[in-house]
Amino acid sequence: MPGIASDPRDGSPVSSALVPFSPDARGPAAYPLHHGLKPPISRLAISWGRGNSLRVSFFRRAPADDSDGDEVGGKVLEVRLSSGDGDISDPQSRRIAYGSVSPFALLQSRRNSVASLSKMSSPYHVEWWEYVMEYSKDINSLLGDPKSLPTPVIEDPKGVMQDYNGLLSSTQATVSSKLVDFQKELVTLQIVEDNAKYWEVLSSTLAVGWLDVVVKMLRLHGSYQLDQIGNRETENGLVEAVAVLISKMPRMRPELGSGRLGECYRAKPDFIKAWEKWRAQITKLACSSYWVYCDHHQTREGLGNMLQIMLGNTNSLCTSTCHWIELYIAHFLYIRPLTVPSTEMHAVKTNDHYACIDKSPFGIITDNTEIAPIYLTSCMKQGVGLLEILLSKQPVQHRQILLKIVEICRLNELHSVSSNIMKIAGVYHWKHGRRGSGVYWLQQARDEVRLNRIAQQLFDSVGQSLSDESFKQWEGLIELLGSESKAAGGLEFLHRYRDFKKFLKQVNDGKSTCAAQQAVESLISLMKNPCTPQRFWLPLLYDSLKLLNWQECPLLNVSQTNLLLNKLQELSMARLRPDFIEAELAPQASGSVRLALATNLGRAILEEQ
Amino acid sequence: MAIPGTALREPPQVHRLPQSKYIDSVRWLPQQSAFDRHAVLALSDPSSDSSPSLEILSLSSQTLSLTTQCIWNPPSRVSSLRTSQTPTLKPVIAAATFSGSLHLLFTNSIDASLESEVSVPEEGLHVGPVSCVDVLDGGAECVSVGEDGRVNLVSVSGSRLNLRRIFDSHGLVSYTAVKWASPAEFVTGGYGFSLQWWDQRKPGGAVSQFKGDWAEGTTSGIVHSIDIHPSRKHTCLAGGSLGTVFAWDLRWQQKPIILSGVGRGETAAHSACESEVWEVQYDRYTKSTNTGNVSSSRILPAMICSEDGILAVVEQDEEPIELLAEPCAINSFDIDRENPSDVICSLEWESIAILTRP
């Protein structure tokens, strides 16, 4: 890498590549892409597609002239990442997805109970590993016949980690990605040990067992510099002691690759003995009095934390790792060095189903919303956000699908999402002429604003009066609006209007003065109510002519008549405004109402005297 | 929860049969022979919108496995599926679709092979999807309802279908469920837990309306399924949102009998489930536990399936009896009319379960 070929401080050549990525380690597969676009391609974007595929988008530069104007501006290709034998059909992959839910739910509930029982800040606990194993076994059996795997030991955590990096999307940090980031930053750092990130990366790298990298990084510590060593002797001694301890970590394996650190033991008893000794040395160092003489605060803290990692302190391991797989490895390196994390690990790792465990299982969730919430809600950081986006994107046309989504929202307490979805459904149905469904969903979403707005449209179609034939049609909608306690916006007017019409019908059917009294009360309450749209005032009064001209006695008293006269006056004032909507009534309607009111007023005055 | 009475009952035998497609609906096909049993599945492919299918499968009584007998492709996904018999005891399948068409498939009564198909094309019946269809028992007459607010009658005469529109609310009221009560009457259900009783002899609209606002406006829901027992035609059983199962007795017009779900108040413990009840059917197999008091006002035991994965038998004032509790939704079920001990149901995760009750 240019620019960092040598360490600027001591002049000795130090390999800048902390993470030795070797391009030929796993024999990368080449996928030829036939995009068929004319060059130049200005931009290339890669994202996860469905399942085990990548989506590669090619963008061309906008054409400078018209010569290739008919050329498309870009293309998106799906690249299926499979070795050929791992190809599974859609139904099969859905079956795996369905089957994976129960073990996962069990794992989650165990995790929660472990966490609540131990009252620890972290749920990672000894039993927890048993559960993870069990889960892995379940998933393994779900995936079918496990292939016999060669030498099932994590020989090379580095290789494994890089695989994981490949599996995970780039949005979540891993130890490896942290390390790569830090490597870039390293060039600009003058005093590396003052940087908190340096210590963070060191402990993370140590946690996943990349010993050679750790030692290499430790030796970048400023106390090694010739001009410093005199006054930082103790500090340097401590750094070196830790570096030596790390490079002497006992490993139970026949041999290590060249450049790899650690001491190999073939036999278990030898290994145990060495392990105990190594741990004793760490403990001794941790309790040493030299720490008091170390003036550099960050060094003291950082090295202490590294010792805790080597001693298998769960909290230190948890904070130093990013992903649970990394934690899993750390656990086997420092807590249970004798356990061989073999087939189960491999089974989980080798299939892309792994991606479902903690990360967003995009392949599955885009197919099945029923499964998505189970995975996404267990993913602390982005899960709920992703779920919200996913749910909001679902189609609302089908009642059953809509209800299933609303139910998922209810279970996950995503009330605002569900209310938004119901609003969308309400507007959708309304726009497609299903006014009843539209009103229902808007009511469910308690969307007063839209209910008020559609009320105006609804009143247009109610027209000047509810005719008898259309009454049956309106009846159901008005029932749906329900009692006044329900959100109905301006629509509650319809309820009163219907009642008024009912009474009026009884009057017209030749019912008694009693029915006429009820109709008048209903009329007055409608005219008093601010919800009653102004355009309905005249039709209401015109419909009530019979009541106003009641033969036997005046039905309205003086104040009631005055109220109606005032309304009529208000109406003639309003008529001057440009936005006034004239009711479609006979031209003499206003006159006849005024006359009837005046007559009634006269009779009422006489009556009251 | 200890359920009295269930301790004595043996649990049903359950056979799960994974499918490779999403099951929109499942029904038994009425049989003539006790040896040949068939089920009808409406299937769709979740990976692609194309090629929904209707499959008739034969059930092997020994292995309880399903073998596809014949496949028929509807123009779009099936939104409602019913089976019945013609007056000549020929099995008939009524399938309505999301694109608004209705299809009647007549099958051979011996081997269930497809003999003929008559249909009303899209746009002829409804604007948008058909919500629900029901076939009159013993007579080839169908009633269909939709969210567009139309109520249609479709009758078979020879090889033709006659269409008659009973009512059109022009979208002011949407219907989501329908069930025949008698050759002249049927019941529809819709939003706001509403039910409407219709009588062909009294045109112009529903003869009776049930307002589903017993929960005092706090909660409301949708009726998804209706059943009416042939011996109690005055009572209509309905299942819908919020785990609600209620009965509407025409003789007590506005007072529902709640079997499960909201509005139960102090007896809420009897709720079999708390999410959408997708289907209800009277369960002829379960004998009422309260045999001493089988008055005509008592609601007979009924089976329900729900979004929260419950298949259960509910009975008035009794604890529900759970037959299945699945991790995924149970979207539809059917009780075999010849062998009411047998139930077939479809699960959200692309499988069929067949229950045999002891």
UniProtKB/TrEMBL annotation, chain A:
Transmembrane segments: none annotated. The keyword Membrane applies. InterPro entries: Nucleoporin_Nup85 (IPR011502). One of its GO terms (biological process) is protein import into nucleus. Pfam families: Nucleopor_Nup85. Keywords: Membrane, mRNA transport, Nuclear pore complex, Nucleus, Protein transport, Translocation, Transport. It is found in: Nucleus, Nuclear pore complex. Residues 1-21 are annotated as: Disordered. One of its GO terms (molecular function) is structural constituent of nuclear pore. The keyword Amino-acid biosynthesis does not apply. GO terms for cellular component: nuclear membrane; nuclear pore outer ring. Component of the nuclear pore complex (NPC). Belongs to the nucleoporin Nup85 family. This is Nuclear pore complex protein Nup85.
Automatic annotation (TrEMBL), chain B:
The keyword Repeat applies. Its main location: nucleus. InterPro entries: WD40/YVTN_repeat-like_dom_sf, WD40_repeat_dom_sf. It comes from the Eukaryota. The keyword RNA-binding does not apply. GO terms for cellular component: nuclear pore outer ring. Signal peptide: none annotated. Keywords: Nucleus, Repeat, WD repeat. It is found in: Nucleus. This is Nucleoporin Nup43. It comes from Morella rubra.
